[in-house]
Amino acid sequence: MNSQYQHYVPQLILRKFSDYIEPKDSAYATKKKLDSARSRAKNKARVKVLTWNEDFSTDRLESRLCGRTFGVKNMYAPEIELAFSTLEQQVSKVIKAVEHDFVGNKTSTILSRSQKDLLRKFLFIMAYRNCTFSKRFDCTMDEYRLNDREKLLQYVRLKGFSTLKEVWLSNIRAFIDVDMEKNGWPDWLQQNAYPDDALWFWKNMTQFFLCFCTPQLASEEFLLTQNAYGIFEGPNDHLSWTDWHVFAPVNDRLVIVSRTNWLSNIPDLPLNLTRAVTELQKEHIRSLTSRYKDPVAAHSWLENLPVRRPTTSYPIVQPSSASINISGRANFCSSDTFAFEFFQLPSTFVQRINTVLLEEAINTDAIVYKTKTGLRKALDFYLEAEGPGLKSIMPELQHEGPVIWHPGHSGSARSSTLPEFKRKGYLGMLERVARSLGSQCKAKSVLIRPEVICIMPVLSETFAISGLISDWIADLKQAECITRFWLCINNIIRGRPKIFRDYMQQERLKLVYTLHPRRVWLHLRMMRILPDTPAPTLQSSHETVLSLLVAEDNNGPEDVIADCMCFLHLGLNAAIIHRLYGREANKHGKTGSVALCCDDMSRAMMRASSIRQYLEIESNGTLTERKRKHFAAARAFVGDIANCDLPRIRTAAVVLAKSFDKEMKDLMSQNLPQVPTDIIREKWVRWQLQKEFECILDGRALQKQDLERLKDLIFDHMYPIQ
Question: Which CA distances in Å does 531 have to 64, 473, 590?
């Protein structure tokens, strides 16, 4: 197959940032000559590009052919490229009509519902096939580490795919093929695409509205970054993210902004209903922002963007006319029209949009611009801007290159490619470029305290208790507050009636269960280092507390979890760390809870080869006296490993339990005396799980001692038979 250069950003968009001038019809005698002239002009079209190398040591302002900008060879199969090209041709007509009204100084442009939905579909696929998002599938199934791993791999097996790339390509094809003029299209998409991504498509189609924006000042412009169509504005801490706005530059003077419905006013509502809807929107925004460490900073940086919803016109049609279903619940007519205003944005909002694009361009290698003046203004604003989460950088360390400490592997350090480690070089490069354009600005940034590195586990997209480095500062403060609260509660309930102590402990657990798992992890480590008189420790400086955390020997169960889970690509979800906290917080009042797992019968169980042998069924079909006493004593204990929060163990436990029930049914048909089947089943399943523990978790990457530590923690500490 011949190599084909395929674009993340289509050439129809790139040419709008280029020197391309479309030949006029009147200059050519025949259509054939006109088409030939257009083809030559398109092939020669060039864009102005700011490029840099991987370590930001060199940069260059240069000119590139549109045909060799923002693309990669053989991104996907020819049939998908053909289908997308067809969609692109259809959308180009819509964009051309919008630009015609824009250039003609009209105040708005009118699109039919079909045109609007076609444009929405195109913008979503542009984001989904973007260079950044596509990397999600650019790995083997064993290497995939995101928090939907089990769900995605189950989907791969169900559909018979052999690689994750096939999932991505199949989803793109489904997004292209979905017919939004038919009722029930969301259900069709759920059946033909990965359900989570199908839901994401539905959300973009129904939970946002489009608006067209242009700079008020003629000297300003919108930049085009390599990943521009995959960028959103909103908080993101690697576990939770909220997209308030999504951007799609059309040309240097026009950008399409998809704005969440929760930030807009609904027109033409009665006054009393408007107030109710406004309160509902505020309450929902509060619920969204409350998930983050700083709810105020989680609000949109563009919340006051001067835009409105389009004006909708619903023509009177006959009941038999064609209708479509947009949300899966309401019918709309394909002849509905939408009047989209061209909103002129003040300089602040134009440059805030550019700032969001520049902040996320750090993992790319080029930016397209139209004029040097426009580029300089955008760089000046970004370099001097101060906003929530902007330009956090990691200070230089004593090691060769940026490294972080990994708990449980003393002395080990790993390189990181997180933006915080790279941003100092990135900002320095942009500052050099700005000064070469005549600017005198100096880059501002937020320096992360270096001691925070020492308490962080491996920071990667796969490790669920990881997060942005700046989050750990606030997390440490919160962990200190929770630790003080924990100690105060202990003092209050000391000597009080047991019913009161139990109630307060349960309420404390409920509170801690609402916290981010990073904060619970830090809280557990902090409790472990507290001396008998904890007040001096908690009253000391952050540096003192941090030094104690670093000095901790990392043998606590929370560190076993953090140490092992990242290697097994399992992540550490909130349920696991919260359950661990519950076990740790109450362990002093629950002594002997795992005795049943360590008795003589359990050791004998490990030597058995069948359920019948384990039960010690004699030739006459009765249980041995030893087994009778063992199971009689075991009636007081209950446990269920099938409720484990680790999906692989849970799935294997369910399968083993079903196998046990089938064989046990056959044994019971032989007039076997009554035994506590639930206890036998639980111990049998645990035995099998422990025998195949490494295989079930695919734990080959772990050393044997780490695997044993994790096994003991799961079966004897977190999920014991009680």
Answer: 65, 23, 22
The CA-atom distances, in angstroms, between 311 and each of 12, 314, 337 are 28, 10, 8
DSSP 259-272: EEGGGSPPSS--HH
- For residue 456, what pLDDT is reported? 44
Q: How many CB atoms lie within 10 A of CB 643?
A: 10
CA distance 113 to 321: 15
H or E element, residue 115: helix 113-128
Instruction: Report d(CA 81, CA 87) in Å as an integer.
Output: 10
Pairing of strands 232-233, 403-405: unpaired
For 142-188, write each residue's pLDDT tens digit.
Answer: 778 676 777 888 899 899 999 999 999 999 999 999 999 888 899 99
The amino acid that residue 641 corresponds to is I
Q: Which one-letter DSSP state was computed for residue 131?
A: T
DSSP 346: P
Task: Name the helix (H) or strand (E) containing 481.
Answer: helix 469-493
**HEC string for 21-50:** CCCCHHHCCCHHHHHHHHHHHHHHCEEEEE
How far, in whole angstroms, is CA 562 from its chain's centroid? 19
Task: Give the span between the Cα atoms of 408 and 525, in whole angstroms.
Answer: 13
Residues 6+ away with beta carbon under 8 Å from 442: 383, 384, 431
Name the CA radius of gyration of the chain, rounded: 31
Report pLDDT for 601: 35
88-97 pLDDT, tens digit per residue, is 999 999 999 9
Residue ranges in the chain whose pLDDT is less than 50: 318-330, 397-416, 450-467, 469-470, 553, 566-573, 588-612, 614, 617, 631-638
Rounded Cα gap, residues 189 and 185, in angstroms: 6
Cα separation, 323 vs 288, whole angstroms: 34
Instruction: Give the three-class secondary structure for 496.
Output: coil
**What is d(CA 84, CA 91) in angstroms, rounded to the nearest whole number?**
10
* Structure tokens given for 26: 């009147």
Q: What is the pLDDT of residues 570-606, one digit of tens each?
A: 444 455 655 666 656 555 333 222 222 223 333 343 3
User: What's the distance, Cα to Cα, between the start and end of the chain in Å?
Assistant: 62
Long-range CB pairs of 690-694 (<8 Å, 24+ gap) are 690/606, 690/715, 691/606, 692/652
